[in-house]
């Protein structure tokens, strides 16, 4: 995905990283345990509840701070998301205490788990990168709501036209001549829902009608822009509260009726 070079999940008990460097930004969250590491000859700790951001081309190592090891999730971000001019600021403060940011990183990992949710992943990574930049620059981590009604409605019209085919955030931003973060925030402010959430719920609406018309679930998934039947089922159940098969079998009534 654009901006994310790699996603990596690991559980280590006795592994110790030697001193090394990356050519990407390392965005790290700890789910269990803690990590002790040296960055640019200064000792640090990556703790659960924090977000750790290690800059590119700066030597660091890492090992468990406890005998029980650690569990981590890592995203390697390229320089299209974070500028090299911010490296020094990241060296000075790699640990970020920001629970909403940590939750946003967690949700970004979740959106990367399977194909079909690229618009969600792109939107989440754009907002995470913006929040990281604001921390590094010493600004308020939460930007003021962006109000741009015309742009928001243009994006909604574009999503409606591309409901089945879908589109990336980068494509939408290019077509509408807007920065991706501005685009997501303008849409969310105007409609109270993120662009990817709007796209998914509109696809589910269309899927409901096709299921009631008797179309089988695999064909419905293909016709409504879901990656496959499993992808349709996951989102359909989250929005409607039941599976496509049960919905169709109950003729539109709830699964318990």
Automatic annotation (TrEMBL):
- PROSITE patterns found in the cross-reference section: HTH_ARAC_FAMILY_2
Record domain HTH araC/xylS-type: where: 153-250
Say which domain of life the source belongs to.
Bacteria
Q: Which InterPro entries match?
A: AraC-bd, AraC_XylS_family_regulators, Homeodomain-like_sf, HTH-like, HTH_AraC
One short Pfam family name for this protein? Answer: AraC_binding
Q: Does the keyword Membrane apply?
A: no
User: What SUPFAM superfamilies does this protein map onto?
Assistant: Homeodomain-like, Regulatory protein AraC
Q: Which GO terms describe its molecular function?
A: DNA-binding transcription factor activity; sequence-specific DNA binding
Q: Which UniProt keywords apply?
A: DNA-binding, Transcription, Transcription regulation
Q: What is this protein called?
A: AraC family transcriptional regulator
- Taxonomic source organism: Glycomyces artemisiae
């Amino acid at each position: 995905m654009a901006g994310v070079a790699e996603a990596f999940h690991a559980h280590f008990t006795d592994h110790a990283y030697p001193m090394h460097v990356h050519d990407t930004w390392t965005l790290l969250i700890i789910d269990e345990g803690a990590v002790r590491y040296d960055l640019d000859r200064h000792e640090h700790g990556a703790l659960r509840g924090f977000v750790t951001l290690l800059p590119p081309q700066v030597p660091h190592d890492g090992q468990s701070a406890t005998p029980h090891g650690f569990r981590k999730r890592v995203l390697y971000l390229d320089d299209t998301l974070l500028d090299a001019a911010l490296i020094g600021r990241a060296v000075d403060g790699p640990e970020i205490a920001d629970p909403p940011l940590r939750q946003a990183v967690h949700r970004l990992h979740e959106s990367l788990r399977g194909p079909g949710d690229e618009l969600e992943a792109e939107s989440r990574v754009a907002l995470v990168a913006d929040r990281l930049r604001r921390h590094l620059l010493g600004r308020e981590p939460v930007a003021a709501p962006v109000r741009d009604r015309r742009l928001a409605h243009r994006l909604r019209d574009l999503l409606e036209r591309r409901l089945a085919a879908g589109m990336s955030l980068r494509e939408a931003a290019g077509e509408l001549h807007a920065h991706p973060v501005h685009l997501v925030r303008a849409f969310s402010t105007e409609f109270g829902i993120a662009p990817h959430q709007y796209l998914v719920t509109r696809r589910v609406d269309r899927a409901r009608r096709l299921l009631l018309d008797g179309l089988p679930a695999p064909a419905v998934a293909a016709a409504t822009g879901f990656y496959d039947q499993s992808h349709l089922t996951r989102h359909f159940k989250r929005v409607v509260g039941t599976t496509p098969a049960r919905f169709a079998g109950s003729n539109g009534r709830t699964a318990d009726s």
